[in-house]
Amino acid sequence: MNYQNFETSVSFIKNLNNRIIRIQVKKGVVIDKQGIRENRLIYEKILQGEKGLFLTIFNEFNTAGEGVKKEFESINHIENKEAEAFVVNGLSNRIELEFFTKMTKTIYPTAVFNDEKEAMKWLMDFQD
């Protein structure tokens, strides 16, 4: 299949069609507010007003910078999302992300996985 591909300062984004967006966070990147905003512009371009299903894949050495939680909770960020699956590659990522998702106010379902196929299977349950 021919998918749309995009790149921001923090990630590689792929439009998998059917409202599914795959985000591969770049190795060693500390995710910051600006990176989230860059990604959001791509999401808006892909979804064109619809809500999407997000598959976000982290590398072992990714972490979030200061102010990311507030940006993640902003209405501009959450209005694009129907559900989001996070895939982690290490215990430290899992601990940080599970804490982050439990402490963050979202209005859509989120889940943390070790395996991309399992995460995709979970997301598919939200398709029309």
The count of domains is: 1
Estimate the helix proportion, in percent: 25-40%
**Main sheet properties:** 6 strands, mixed
The overall average pLDDT, rounded, is 82
Task: Note the run of SSEs as H and E.
Answer: EEEEHEEHHEHEH
* Rough outline: globular
CATH fold category name: Transcription Regulator spoIIAA
- Total count of helical runs of at least 4 residues: 5
Task: Please state how the strands of the largest beta sheet are arranged side by side.
Answer: 1-2-3-5-7-8
Spatial separation of the terminal alpha carbons: 21 Å
Strand portion, in percent? Answer: 25-35%
What's the short story on this structure?
This protein is of the alpha/beta class. It has helices at residues 33-47, 68-73, 75-78, 91-103, 116-124; strands at residues 4-7, 11-15, 20-25, 30-31, 52-57, 63-64, 81-87, 110-113. Helix content is 37%, strand content 28%.
Descriptive account of the structure:
The chain is α/β, with parallel strands linked by helices and about 130 residues long. The chain has one domain: Transcription Regulator spoIIAA (2-Layer Sandwich), CATH 3.30.750. A six-stranded mixed beta sheet has the order 1-2-3-5-7-8, with helices on both faces. The chain has a two-stranded parallel ribbon with strand order 4-6. The mean pLDDT is about 80.
